[in-house]
Amino acid sequence: MYNFNYKKASSRDDAVAAQSSADDGSYLAGGMTLIPTLKQRLAQPSDLIDLADVGDLAGISDDGGAITIGAMTTHATVAESEVVTSKIPALAALAGHIGDPQVRNRGTIGGSIANNDPAADYPAGCVGLNATIITNKRELPAEDFFTDLFETALEEGELVTAVSFPIPDKAAYAKFPNPASRYAIVGVMVAQTGGETRAAVTGASQSGVFRAADIEAALGSGLDAAAAKEVKVSADNLNADIHASAEYRAHLISIMASRAAAAAG
Amino acid sequence: MNEMSNKWIGQSTIRPDGAEKVTGRAEFAADTNMPGMIWGSVLRSPHAHARIVSIDTSKAEAHPGVKAVVTAQDIVDFPVDTPVPLGIQDMRWMCRNIMAREKVLFHGHPLAAVAATSEAIAAEACKLIEMEYEVLPWVIEIEDAIKPDAPILHEYLEHDGKPSNITGTLEHKLGDVEEGFAQADVIIERSFTTRPVHQGYIEPHACLVSVAADGKTTIWSSSQGQFMVRAMTAMLTDMPQSDIRAIPAEIGGGFGGKTIVYLEPVATMLSKKSGRPVKMVMSREDVMRASGPTSGSMSTVKIGATKDGQIVAAEGTFYLQAGALPGSPIRGAAGCGFAPYNIPNVHSVGIDVVSNRSKVAAYRAPGAPIGAFAVESVLDEVAEALNIDPLELRLRHAAREGTKAAHGPTYPLIGFVETIEAAIEHPHYKAPLGKHQGRGVASGFWFNAGGESSAQVNITEDGNVVVTTGHPDIGGSRAAIANVAAELLGIDYRRVSVLIGDTATVGYSNLTGGSRVLFASAMAVTDSAGQVITTLCERAAKIWDIDPDAVTWEDGEARPAGDNAGQFEPLSLADIAAQATQTGGPIGHGAQLNTTGAQGGFATHICDVEVDMDLGIVKVLRYTSFQDVGRAVHPAYVEGQMQGGVAQGIGWALNEEYIFDKDGHVDNPGFLDYRMPVCSDLPMLDAVMIEVPNPAHPQGVRGVGEVPLVPALAAIANAVHNALGLRFSSLPMSPPKVLAALEMPEAAE
Amino acid sequence: MPTVSMTVNGKSVSAEVEPRTLLVQYLREHLGLTGTHVGCDTSQCGACVVHVDGESAKSCTMLAMQAEGSDVSTIEGLADGDTLHPMQEAFRENHGLQCGFCTPGMVMSAVDLVRTNADPSEQEVREWLEGNLCRCTGYHNIVKSILAGAKAMQG
Q: Most CB contacts within 10 A, which of A159, A173, B224, B720?
């Protein structure tokens, strides 16, 4: 690891100010991706601004039609939350299968989406459930937030503060985990909310999370699992790595979408 | 020994190191510290194959905090033209493995090492070493390495009269295979490949070395043999063995991978040059790139049988990767594959192939799982072709006492037949299977080893017992040795303390390897305890003033041998110990043995799998292993060996593999991408111990540690075949490969 | 260098550390608590699992600074004097270890499981252990140990 300055921010404003005054400041949430990245010397921030003590960034609230989850809420908290398990069980299940228990105890929703790892689960959850990403400056739809591999619409210093999930009529997430790392080789969130059907795919694309239009069309309003399974997804622009070829990932998209649809019932 | 009278042998007693291990107090090599200690770091090759033109370490040496730098110049050079054997290793290759000499031979090959006041400074200084290379063409896979125009790793090693990457061959012959195949009605011939897999011990290699001003050297390290560490370090640093004290730290797994040195000689030279104790700890990436996995392989097996179900001939050719320097386990592959069977005509050939990957190290029954995968897969097809139950076919041909094996021996009393019979009778073999499920069986053999072991049994002044042996305890052997000593001395096992001595405190003991630890050390303990009992009887005789022959040792006390001996109250161990000074002094005896009589181990496995037809995932649903364990001195740790071996086999069969990128670098050098089984991948692994005691051993012990891995690859492949009708001849059967084969059967090959 | 302060196994500790110091380095190298092990560097093996404010965490994937003000417990702090914690005792009695290197992490992880799930099933134990690797046992006796330890913790 390269050396860096470390600061524990006491408030949102304190965090933003520290970030803006640093040469190359990076927010630190749970650190479950950032610290391994630093250990492998794949990043060299000048300053880490730890958000752990910013009290109002964590927590889950039920606003009637939507559930808002603070950026610093851990995966374990989401997975165990009564509100989430009763209103959006698909999201609780997604959070409950991220990494392993220790990752879930420290990893946060804000950290996960701000990093936008192409194999992370939350981006599929956010896009599939048509979430709104709330930052210290604005609110934007998840589809506009995730822009490319490890890239988001966040501007320099902009801080994710919460994510708001509309409560779907039906939803389920199915993933094929990498047998070693437990990251998604392919994960698909299938959801139906107010007549709209979405299938958001993580792990598969070279440019990160995306909505699979052909799958969504096949699923239709009835979430037709059998039809989704028959879709021949194109392998163009899909990831190929030591764990799976682009063709295998293409195949997985149909199967995982179909399984999610069946589970969403 | 009368089994019925056993009190401790056969009990799963609590291990003596249990409390230390569950409280974190047990000291592993990386946990050891010394005042003034500094840290060593290794510079590793960025190329798969290159000639070293020059090394300039001056900038590293001048870097603040750096205390010493070593290169190959500091390590003894054993010229390539004269073999220097040490055990199964050759120091010509060992000196080139721990530090590249003329050429770098694989990505990650050590080039130099730096010791500095912190690990970070040592690593930074490594980057200041200026290297000049002449990059050479490289070759990774066997099929490429044996091509006529392949880049040659060692120009001085010849095969068929010209430089070659084939660096060794071995052949076993029995009968006449041509005649045998001429009698066959059914002949099945198939080719197979397996990928190299790592032993996967969770503890990375680590050591702490202190060389004092007078050259007296202390090494704490994680190894499968402190005497191996001493001998190799002495040879590679040109020191007398008597100057080196190698202390075995607790070892965090080895599975064969810690039977050679990587760090110890380097740390020794760094300590010698710096005058400071030096600690070195590998990262997981170093472990994966530069310590030895087992061989990848390419093999062809042909078996012929008559239509009435008699196997008449078998032939096998096994090419094994050695890594960058010669020495793959061809003996295990070519020797063990056919060893379980009574086949009149056998021809088996092993071929050692070097290529630009890290030198292989032993891995649990080295080579044998590779041989068994090919042979047991073909046997399955033979059984199918003849319409015979696969276990029945194995039973008909099972080796038994008197069978002549192609690799040499005529078997003494062995319990292979019993493993197959137990499998046939087991409820698992008859349990119904569901959709997309399959059941496979396979058998396997491992040689097992005897060899040198020493032990010391001392009676403490308060009448308890300290046993010292010379083998690092890798899986609970101390508990088993406590059982043996307690049984022999007739005392509670909790009164026996079992310690692992260092090279200065116990006699020479060969490696923890070859499934030999309990076999050999129990013999040394038996010999020592026997001498102790003789002394105890002599002391009692002295106290009673009778003839020593008139005293017997029973239930932990000396008793008059009969009415003629006289009437005396029995003397306990404590009674005799209390009077030791008056009766002749301290009581303790040792034994240094070169043990013989180790007999082969056999196992038969049953495996059920379920295949996810949409995803290609193979899930192991149920697994039962049957093994002739000789005598289970400590059943829980015998079962533990069986379960651990099976789990490694499941990983090898289904997911684990080394993957190289286009530059000849390992692409998955860590647990993030190297796919070892986690708990949720496995079911409970049932272990059925069959005890056919080894008549050549005082407690009936046979080695048990390695054979549990041998049949597993084939058992799983046979189960997948049973589920899908597809035969996978190449491992691993990873989900993408299985799915591809479901769509296009030739993808299984 | 900044100062970090926390409670480790009930004792207040404080030290100057480089910000890049990992919690596991702080525990092992500054405090001499070498029962917390390092087996990989990528947060898979779980040999380094400790509890931070009562929840299991991988100390190789946490900066010491992140534990500022926290209550950290390691394997060394689990036993009550000479009396092993029921989960430690369960591993010892059920032969839930061979080499013992993964054991501290396994035990710490298992204790956290029982905190969230007092009566776990075999399947729940297996899934909980996805962040802890063992290469010796095939997990068979580890699962048995944890099921026994969970029972003992209830009793």
A: A173
> Does the beta-carbon distance from A3 to C41 stay under 8 Å?
no
Q: Is the pLDDT of residue C88 over 60?
A: yes
3-state class percentages of chain C: helix first, strand second, coil last, to nearest 5: 40, 15, 40
Query: Domain B297-448+599-748 carries which CATH code?
Result: 3.30.365.10
| Fold held by B3-25+450-595 | Aldehyde Oxidoreductase; domain 4 (3.30.365)
Question: Residue A22 is part of a domain; what is its CATH number?
Answer: 3.30.43.10
Neighboring chains of C (3 or more beta-carbon pairs < 8 A): A, B
Consecutive 10-residue runs of chain B (749 residues): their mean pLDDT? 74 96 97 97 98 98 98 97 95 98 97 97 97 98 97 97 97 98 98 98 98 98 98 98 98 98 98 98 97 97 97 98 98 98 98 98 98 98 98 98 97 97 98 98 97 98 98 96 98 98 98 97 98 98 96 96 89 97 98 96 98 97 98 98 98 97 96 96 98 97 97 98 97 96 83
Nearest to B218 by CA among B503, B511, B506: B503
pLDDT score of A93 more than 70: yes
Q: Report pLDDT for B303.
A: 98
Tell me the β-bridge partners of A192.
A170, A197
Instruction: Give the pairing type, strands B685-690 and B618-628.
Output: parallel
- Same domain flag for A89 and A23: no
Closest CA to B649 of B600, B741, B717: B717
Same domain, A212 and A227: yes
CA distance B42 to B333: 34
Contacts of B620 in chain A (CB under 8 A): none
User: Testing the interface with A: which of C42, C56, C60, C61 to mutate, by most A Cβ within 10 A?
Assistant: C61
Q: Is the Cβ of B185 closer than 8 Å to some Cβ of chain A?
A: no
The yes/no answer on whether domain B32-136+203-252+258-290 falls in CATH 3.90.1170.50 is yes
Q: Which other chains touch chain B, taking contact as 3+ CB pairs less than 8 Å apart? A: A, C
Instruction: Please enumerate in sequence order all residues whose Cβ is within 8 A of that of B744, keeping only pairs 6 or more positions apart, or say none.
Output: none
Query: Which residue in chain A is spatially nearest to C117 when comparing CA positions?
Result: A80
What is the reported pLDDT for B288? Answer: 98
User: What pLDDT score was predicted for residue A1?
Assistant: 86
Please indicate whether, in this complex, the C-beta atoms of C58 and A102 are within 8 angstroms of each other: yes
- Considering the domain C86-154 in this protein, what is its CATH number? 1.10.150.120
Nearest to B287 by CA among C27, C36, C41: C41
Beta strands in B57-176 (DSSP E): 66-71, 85-86, 89-90, 103-104, 110-116, 130-135, 158-159, 162-163, 166-174
pTM score of the predicted model: 0.98
From A57's Cα to the closest Cα of chain C, the distance in A is 16
How many beta-carbon pairs under 8 angstroms link A with C? 76
Q: With pLDDT > 70 as the criterion, what percentage of chain A qualifies?
A: 100
Query: Which numeric CATH code is attached to C3-76?
Result: 3.10.20.30
- C83–chain B nearest CA distance, Å: 10
Percent of chain B with pLDDT over 90: 98
Q: Give the separation between CA A147 and CA A110, rounded to whole angstroms.
A: 16
Q: What is the pLDDT of residue B747?
A: 76
CB contact under 8 A, A181 and B672: yes
Task: Return the bridge partners of B498, or none.
Answer: B467
pLDDT tens column, B211-265: 999 999 999 999 999 999 999 999 999 999 999 999 999 999 999 999 999 999 9
H helical segments located in B398-476: 416-425, 427-430
Give CA–CA dist C66/B50, Å, rounded: 44
Which backbone phi and psi does B347 adopt, to 5 degrees?
-135, 120
Query: What digits encode the pLDDT tens for the residues B25-41?
Result: 999 999 999 999 999 99
